[in-house]
Amino acid sequence: MTSTPDQHSSNEIKVAASEARFRALVTATTDVIYSVSADWKVMYELDGRGFLKDADEPTTDWMSANVHPEDVEKVKAAIAEAIQSKKIFQLEHRVLRADGSPGWTFSRAVPILNDQDEIMEWFGTASDITEQKTAEEALRETRAQSDQQKRVYETVTSNTPDLMYVFSLDYIFTYANRALLNMWGKTWDTAVGKGLRENGYEEWHALMHEREIDKVKATKQSIRGEVSFPHATLGRRVYDYILTPVINERGEVEAVAGTTRDVTERKQWEDSLATGAEQLQAINEEMAATNEELAASNEELISTNEELALVNHELIKAQHKIEEGQVAFRLAVNAANFGTWHIHSVTREFITDARLKELFGYYPEESLSIEQAIAQITEEYRSYVSAKLENAIYNNGDYDVTYPAIGLHDNQLRWMRAIGNLKLDPSGAFSAFTGIVMDITEQKQDEIRKNDFIGMVSHELKTPLTSMKGYIQILLSKLKKQEDEFILGALQKANGQISKMTSMINGFLNISRLESGKIHIDHQIFDLALLIRESEEESLATITSHTLIYEPVETTFVDADRDKIGQVIHNLISNAVKYSPQGTTIHIACVTVKGVAKITVKDHGMGIKPDDISKIFDRYYRVDGDHMFSISGFGIGLYLCAEIIHRHHGEVWAESEFGEGSTFGFSLPLSVS
Questions:
Q1: In a domain, 141, yes or no
Q2: Most exposed among 4, 451, 509, 584, judged by the fewest C-beta atoms under 10 Å?
Q3: What is the spatial distance between Cα 646 and Cα 515, in angstroms, rounded to a whole number?
Q4: CA atoms within 13 A on the CB side of 330
Q5: From residue 279, how far is each of 320, 422, 490, 497, 632 by CA, in Å?
Q6: What is the rounded CA–CA span in Å between residue 519 and residue 640?
Q7: Strand partners, 164
Q8: 3-state DSSP call for residue 533?
Q9: For residue 360, is pLDDT > 70?
Q10: pLDDT recorded at residue 380
Q11: For residue range 47-75, what is the model confidence (pLDDT) as tens digits?
Q12: 489 and 464 in one domain?
């Protein structure tokens, strides 16, 4: 359609008005201002504001002069889309600045339409956003570095059994590792960002830590302490903790970091030793009272008691040395380096740090495979660790193992403890098994020295006790025809106490031999049915206080140490007699299930509380309570049973209902021949 003179006049008026608005926009803004033809081929005017090159005359090479070569196609595509839709053009892209250096701009252009809704030209502005883009890129790099550091930190802190955390100066938890969250029974979202009281700390406990945080801030010095706290699943535990100042670049305390370790087992062991010393002192006092009544035969007994007192003094000194060694060891472990690893469950790629390679005697630049690491473990532990590792990677089994290894190049024997866990990849295609290894050689050496010393002392104690028992039995034999009931009763009590002491010393000797590797498992193929029949004959001849019922046992061949398995059965029956009322029934059974022989001893005694059942096989563990007051012991019998069965690759367990009775049992693999 041909335009009329009136239409041309109208368009000229609109263009003039548009140019007037453009001039006003140029005056009012600091942004780059430009105008282009309807098809964007001609740039009419460009006021670069020092950012881009100015254009005072129409030009067609504006794109090559101002747009960064790598973004030309992106700009062309945005222009085509704006022309097609007759909508505002807007795009963030790179440019060539007036000095030739690269920069960034955010460009917006508005189409000017005529009465026929056709684009006559475009007016636009471009903002210099170079500094903003540079800052965004720096922020992305900083976040990437921060995320990488956080992953490394989380790998270390999430695999340690210690509780690790950070307080702000207003007593708020700003970080808590997985071990601490598990102890609380909480998640990150429900615990971090909360205070002490919100995370279950009692008022006195919260106030104590708040005072300590204030002191760390004021003195810039660490604080150490010991306190009890209820574990989410294990009940009340005892913890050793250290609070340390976090210093910023200005030398100010900006936070307080903490590390806490569970020392419950150590405290229980110390309490057991103290209880043993008290019982030994009570025996000595009772013997002294008896000796006053036996003036004629007193000289030899007094000499023996003096010998016992001397040994008792040596035991107390030994206990102090052991305690000092444990404190030194704990401080050493706190300062020790951990080795870390990462295993891909599908490819079995084994990624380690230099510290782990060092522990296995490899140089930092050398490669180390799973098979090579296992090969450095000593032969008697190699198959055990390998089985635990495979079960952890492919069955999500527990992995907390202690073993010795000999370094490849340095030929050094090290004892190590490895702890790991399995994490499922978000894709579900594989899992990552990660963990830490710590050098516990010094601790194992302390334990070996301690066991050797306890074995030596226990052995020395047996000689005077044997002599004392012989003298008392001679006196009993000579005084049977006399009518002095008091003297006979006192001697019988003394004889009973010596028997108890001998049993306890034998228990310590067995533990010493077991943990020092001096108890060997003498494997032989034998019939469990015959062994249980012998146990039945012995029990019927010696136990008259209870009714023992032995269930029929079929021929059951196992490859094991016959004497030590007999010792386990005897110990479980003795415990059932000790912890159940006279006249009650004890059931002994042996059945075969899926290639495994299972032996159980069931009583109708006092039973065990749920909190104690999981710790009943721990070394030196004894159940607390008024109902245990009259029952002696050091908590070593069940521990010995468990160790013997574990060395036969069997399982040991206990089931109980408090006040109703208990069932103790163990399993052994059947002989394959």
A1: no
A2: 4
A3: 13
A4: 18
A5: 18, 47, 18, 10, 9
A6: 11
A7: 259
A8: helix
A9: yes
A10: 81
A11: 888 888 888 889 999 999 899 999 999 99
A12: yes
pLDDT at 294 over 60: no
Which among 200, 156, 197 is positioned nearest to 181, based on CA atoms?
Answer: 200
Looking at residues 331-358, what average pLDDT do you find? Answer: 80
The secondary structure of residue 626, as a DSSP letter, is G
DSSP character for 67? B
Q: How far apart are CA 74 and CA 413, in angstroms?
A: 65
Which of these three, 498, 515, 532, is where a domain ends?
A: 515
Given a contact cutoff of 8 angstroms between Cβ atoms, the answer to whether 123 and 22 are in contact is yes
Of the candidate ranges 160-174, 336-350, 648-662, the one whose mean pLDDT is the lowest: 336-350
What contacts 183, CB < 8 A, 6 or more positions away? 163, 229, 231, 232
**Judgement on whether residues 87 and 181 belong to the same structural domain of the protein:** no
Answer yes or no: do 33 and 123 share one domain: yes
Positive or negative: CA dihedral 123, 128, 134, 135? negative
pLDDT for residue 392 is more than 60:
yes
* Tokens (6 digits) for 127: 């903002």
CATH number, domain of 399, equals: 3.30.450.20
Cα gap 321→217, rounded to integer Å? 35
Q: Phi and psi for 424 in degrees, rounded to 5?
A: -80, 130
pLDDT of 33 over the 80 cut: yes
**133 pLDDT higher than 60:** yes
Question: Does one domain contain both 244 and 279?
Answer: no
**Are 257 and 323 part of one and the same domain?**
no
332: helix, strand or coil: helix
One domain, residues 532 and 647: yes
DSSP 473-523: HHHHHHHTTS--HHHHHHHHHHHHHHHHHHHHHHHHHHHHHHHTT-S----
CA distance 245 to 217: 7
Q: Among candidates 587, 586, 585, 521, which has minimal Cα distance to 558?
A: 521
The closest of 285, 308, 302, 291 to 475, measured between CA atoms, is 291
CATH number at residue 546: 3.30.565.10
- Single out the residue in 515, 547, 572 at which a domain terminates: 515
Residue-wise burial string across 5-34, b where 16 or more C-beta atoms lie within 10 A, e elsewhere = eeeeeeeeeeeeeeeeebeebbeeeebbbb
- Is residue 23 scored above 50 in pLDDT? yes
Residue 287 lies in a domain: yes
Q: Is 244 in the same domain as 308?
A: no
138 located within any domain: no
Residues 482 and 412 in one domain: no
Worst-scoring range by mean pLDDT, 80-89, 265-274, 571-580? 265-274
**Domain containing 379: what range?**
337-439
Stretch 71-89: mean pLDDT, rounded?
94
Helices (H), 220-353: 264-293, 298-335
Whether residue 153 has pLDDT greater than 70: no
56-60, 461-465, 545-549 — which one is most confidently predicted on average?
Answer: 545-549
- Which of 145-159, 470-484, 519-533 comes out lowest in average pLDDT? 145-159
What's the average model confidence in pLDDT over 481-507? 69
Q: Is the pLDDT of residue 165 over 70?
A: yes
- Other residues' Cβ atoms within 10 Å of the Cβ of residue 439: 20
- Residue 646 to residues 397, 532, 565, 661: CA-CA distances in angstroms? 17, 20, 11, 25
Examine residue 604 and state whether it is found in any structural domain, yes or no: yes
Does the pLDDT at position 445 exceed 90? Answer: no
Q: Which of 200-214, 487-501, 642-656 has the highest mean pLDDT?
A: 200-214
In the chain, the number of structural domains is 5
C-alpha pair distances (Å), 546 with each of 232, 534, 540, 585, 601: 40, 18, 10, 6, 13
- Give residue 538's identity as a one-letter amino acid code: E
